[in-house]
């Protein structure tokens, strides 16, 4: 009875992922029965993935939540994102020229991660056309989105500049975002004076769009930020 309940829970979480959309109940049960699914549990604050770590498997956040940390090469600022379940972690890094994770991941609270080896993923891509299609769609969408960001027109409004900088440095639309950066460095990156940048950020804080702390900008809702900058 317990195994049946566990299998049902795994099934429900897996079918909610873009990778398995369109799979039938029988197909999913067959995958669960014949694919090695490695489950690992982590306590709060544990490091799960390091940036530049080889990506030899697909990892899926099944329960709990994660913090993702991204930094430029010079480590001059850091973007932190909160990730909820269920989420595929950088599936586009599994193949290609640089099969390594781009970011650090740490458990925010107790969580469980499901891992599927590259070899088993390749088998699934070969055996199930719908999984192959879904995987290509995920990778293509991320690639197209990244290219689109590079060719976005230069923003003239300072609120749009700040919003553009924040949104283009995030991987996920949902979840809280936290940017650690000095005011002076942010001003330089968006091409504005420190005073104008400070004034704009405090205006946004008064409108409950962001929360300011020393060298930290917290964005509770990226959607509200985008809406504010477009008004």
Entry summary:
This protein is of the alpha+beta class and 231 residues long. It is built from 8 helices and 11 strands.
Structure description:
The structure is a single chain. The chain is α+β, with helices and mostly antiparallel strands and 231 residues long. Helices cover 42% and strands 23% of the residues. It is built from 8 helices and 11 strands. It has helices spanning 2-15, 25-34, 118-127, 129-150, 158-168, 183-190, 194-206, 222-230, and strands at residues 38-42, 47-49, 57-63, 65-70, 78-84, 87-89, 104-107, 111-117, 177-180, 211-213, 216-219. It has a 7-stranded antiparallel β-sheet, with helices on one face. It has a 4-stranded antiparallel β-sheet with strand order 1-8-3-6. Helix 1 (2-15) crosses helix 2 (25-34), helix 3 (118-127) packs across helix 4 and helix 5 (158-168) packs antiparallel against helix 8. The longest helix has 22 residues, at 129-150. The N and C termini lie far apart (55 Å). The model has no long low-confidence stretch (mean pLDDT 91).
